[in-house]
Amino acid sequence: MGQRSQQLEIEYYYYEDSLPTWKEEKKFADQFNNQIIELLNKHIGKISLQVASVDDDQTLATDFIFKEIRIGCRIRRIDALQYKHQFTIRTHSKDGTSNNSELYKLCTKTRTADYLFYGFGNEITKVLEHWFIGDMRIFRQEMLRQSCFSFGRSIPNFDGTKFLAFDLNDFPPEFIIAKGEL
C-alpha cells in the first residue's frame, strides 16, 4: 500500500444556481451504461447485468445487479479528470445528515455494493476516458481499519452535501480490480 496522501485537491464545479439534480446526473451517467457493462463483463466475468431499481440506487448504493453481486457506479464529468487519482463518496445528504449518504450505506448496510465502477465520461464524445473497478470488500476493510468517517478528506459542496475524497494510492493494490484510460 502506498504512503497515505497528505493533501487531496478540493474541487468545486458548480455555482449554487447551476447544480445538476439527481435526475440530471443519473441521465448523464446512464449514457455510459453500455460501456460500463462491457467493461464489467470483461473484468469481472461474463455476467448478465441488470440496471438496479431507483430504490436500490438510493438506499443501497447499487446501480447494477447480477444475482447476488451488487455494483455501485459513479461517472464524473470530464472536467474533473485532473482528479483521476481520487474517488469521492458522499458523506452528507442535502439535509446535512450523514445517515442517508453513500458512505453511511456502505459502512452500515449489509447488502450494498460489492464492486465500484468509477469513471470520467466525456459528454461530447460519449466515451469513458478514465475508469477503475474497485473491490468494495477491500474498501470496507480499510474504512474499518482507518475509522469510517476519519479516512479521506472532507469536501463540502455548494448544495449542502459533503464528500470524502480518497486517493487510490492509500489503498492496497488488490483494491483495484481493473483500470483503463484513453
Note down, in words, how this protein is organized.
The protein has helices at 22-30, 33-44, 54-60, 102-108, 136-146; strands at 50-51, 64-66, 69-77, 86-92, 115-122, 127-135, 153-156, 162-167, 176-181. The strands form two sheets. A six-stranded mixed β-sheet has the order 1-2-3-5-6-9. A three-stranded antiparallel β-sheet has the order 4-8-7. A hairpin with a 2-residue loop joins strand 2 and strand 3. The protein has one domain (20-181). The protein has 182 residues and is an alpha+beta fold.
Main features:
182 residues; alpha+beta; 6-stranded mixed β-sheet; 3-stranded antiparallel β-sheet; disordered N terminus
